Amino acid sequence: MITFVSPTLDYALLAPILIVLGGALIGVLIEAFAPRSARASSQLFITLATLALSLASLVRVRSGASTTAAMESVTFDGAGVLLQGSILLIAIISVFLLADLDNFTALAAALPGSDEERTSLQQDLKVTEVYPLTLFAVAGMLLFPVATDLVTLFVALEMLSLPLYLLAGLSRRRRLMSQESALKYFLLGAFSSAFFLMGIAYLYGYSAAVSFSGIHAAVIGGTGNDIYLLLGIAFLSVGLLFKVGAVPFHAWSPDVYQGAPTAVTAFMAAATKVAAFGAMLRIFYLSFAEAYWQWRPALIVIALITMVFGSLVAIAQRDVKRMLAYSSIAHAGFLLSGVIALNKSGLDASIFYLFAYGVATVGAFAIVTLVRDSAGEVTDLNRWSGLGKRSPWVATAFAGFLLAFAGIPLTSGFIGKFSIFSAAYESGSTAILITGVLSSAIAAFFYIRVIVLMFFKDPVEDGTSVVIPSVYTQITIAISAVVTFALGIYPTPLINFIQSTAQFLR
Fold it and tell me: Which residue ranges does the record assign to the NADH:quinone oxidoreductase/Mrp antiporter transmembrane domain (predicted)?
């Protein structure tokens, strides 16, 4: 006889996720029933209010004593709350950039170049569905780093991925490239999800459990078949490494970054990395820590190749969005150092790095939306020549974000890289340390090359100009720049807060 056990849910702890899902559903209702003229302002207000309310409820969760929110499926601890807070803050900054709806197609269902598309453009229609789609993706991202069983982890993975597949295809200009990028992202994402599911099956076969604690107990007990464990870790890692864009699962990144609307690229590049690395840190620190001799050598090799490959290939890029894509691949290699370190310093450094890198990434892509000609955004680096003479403030802000990516002192990137390489050194990963420093030096070359191009070359009169940013884009750039330099000049409060808060509870 089958006995059904009623699930025990702590709705107060789940409130940050439930609030975001509720806001997304309200957004769907607005799309269905509100007049078209009122949708953009209503959706923006609902989205920002939802994210702010979710962040406020997360502060309340932080002060609570309970940790298990949904039996063994969702666990709130210090590290999970910090990662969720980072996702919400990055999402709020990104929403201001998304609010400039002129970057999105007027009618998503219209074929590129069709009469229907031309008519919708003439009517100046706005695709306001981006707001509920963004909230659904944020809900998945919030669940991803606090999930403590493999089934919930997979549900969260799909919840964050499916809206991003749609958002990637909504660019207003270069519609065919945008749709191609969305299709590539979807197909490769489906393959990675299949690998992820296969990993879940092998780990269940190894431990007869899907919870992280059950897998950990099986690893300690050593009663299972180690072949299943190795295959499970390998297949599960494919799904996670795809999301963070690590080599050799990086092929989608440049094409999707280039083809997707730049505002979506900014959100995807920043928030997805926080969620994916959060989940990776939790599962490797909690479930696979005692089996590190099996997986650590392979992950070290992947980290080394990712750092070097991303830095070297970025040098050859002539498109600013592709350059930033390969830069993000290199940063994924740096962040893998925190997973490999497998110590408290690695956890603290990873959380700081993820937040600092995410904020700078949103700011950098916000700058990209401002450099345009009559056909839309100009991403050819040659046409950015002399940008500092055309618009000193825009060029200065972009240079600041590039210096943060390069890890130059007085920026958040320097503190992040110093922390994460220190953690790698503490764990004995000398190869990671040496390769990371050399890769950072290589990366600094192409970042500084762009700065030289902007400030020390004469502008070419080819129709390229810098548009006056909307108030929403100004907010995104201003917040990103302030946070980037504040964390570089005075990072102590945040570092101390992370050190006192970040921990994983089994």
Answer: 147-442
Q: Provide DSSP, 307-372.
A: HHHHHHHHHT--BHHHHHHHHHHHHHHHHHHHHHH-SHHHHHHHHHHHHHHHHHHHHHHHHHTTEE
The encoded tokens of residue 485 equal 């330099």
Q: What is the pLDDT of residue 457?
A: 83
Q: What is the 3-state secondary structure (H, E, C) of 422-454?
A: HHHHHCCCHHHHHHHHHHHHHHHHHHHHHHHHH
Helix (H, G, I), strand (E, B) or coil at 266: helix
State the SS3 of 221-235: HCCCCHHHHHHHHHH
- 10 Å Cβ neighbour count for 223? 11
Cis (ω within 30 of 0) for the bond into 248?
A: yes
Structure tokens belonging to residue 19: 């609030």
How many residues would you count in the chain? 506
Rg of the chain over Cα atoms, rounded to whole angstroms, equals 22
- On the 0-12 / 13-18 / 19+ scale of CB atoms within 10 A, 468 is exposed
Instruction: Report helix, strand or coil for 174.
Output: coil
Strands of 135-190, DSSP E: none
The string of pLDDT tens digits covering residues 110-139 is 666 677 767 766 666 778 889 999 999 999
Q: Are 375 and 367 within 8 A, CB to CB?
A: no
Rounded to an integer, what distance in angstroms lies between the CA atom of residue 497 and that of residue 502?
8
DSSP string, 27-84: HHHHHHHS-HHHHHHHHHHHHHHHHHHHHHHHHHHHH-S--BSBTTSBB--HHHHHHH
Task: Give how far the C-alpha of residue 227 lies from the chain's centroid of Cα atoms, to the nearest Å.
Answer: 32
Looking at 19-28, 165-174, 321-330, 355-364, which range is the least confident one? Answer: 165-174
371-373 and 465-466 as β-strands: parallel, antiparallel, unpaired? antiparallel
